[in-house]
Amino acid sequence: MTQERTLLAVFSDIDPAADALDQLRLMGVHDEHMNIISGIPVTEAMLGRPSQWTNVPRLALGGAAGGMLIGIFLAFISPNMYTIEVGGQPFTPVPPAVIVIFELTMLGMLLSTFLGVFLDSYFPSYRPMKYVPEISDGKIGILIEFPLPDEKKVTEVLKKLGAESVQYTEAQHL
Fold it and tell me: Cα separation of 64 and 112, whole Å?
């Protein structure tokens, strides 16, 4: 088993960082061994990376379905369980039932989406995190894990592509 090193390359702009990612891929470094650290929102498409897979849309759909079922229960089934005749009106008037079903559908979707984002982002994280003060100033960092024999080649490529600094990094407890 070969030892792996983790390098942090800091770039001042997104274009050289995207070029560096492309070059690292050509060198055989897989996307799961590269991590982008940025203080500004950067999408996968901007860096030419594959889209991240998430369960949040499925959880939102499940929450909406659950909320709708609760709304249908409260609007149509619950009034038939405890029947009270009021002036010849139907047990379940449809216009208020539609409002109840809609509101509970949206509430279920909102709560499940919040829970999905919360769980999908691994929050809270108790593992050591890598922090670089330059990232807060608008720079973009790339953490690269690679086998130890490729160290010199990776460092040269990153410097040639415009990295301001290339240094070893270790996890820090903040």
Answer: 8
> What distance lies between CA 161 and its chain's CA centroid?
28
Task: Supply the range of the domain harboring residue 33.
Answer: 4-52+131-168
Over residues 27-37, the pLDDT tens digits come to: 888 878 888 88
User: pTM here?
Assistant: 0.60
- CA 153 – CA 116 distance, rounded (Å): 41
pLDDT digits (tens, 9 = 90+) for 96-130: 899 999 999 999 999 999 999 988 877 766 666 66
- Exposure class string for 31-57: b at 16+ Cβ within 10 A, else e: eeebebbbeeebeeeebebeeeeeebe
Q: What is the pLDDT of residue 128?
A: 62
**Number of domains comprising the chain:** 2
Q: Is there a single domain that holds both residue 65 and residue 98?
A: yes
Distances (CA, A) of 129 to 116, 126, 172, 174: 22, 9, 6, 8
The pLDDT score that the predictor gives to residue 91 is 76
| Residue 79 placed within a domain | yes
Across the chain, mean pLDDT equals 82
The 3-state DSSP class for residue 164 equals: coil
DSSP symbol at 136: G
24 domain-assigned: yes
The closest of 148, 149, 166 to 157, measured between CA atoms, is 166
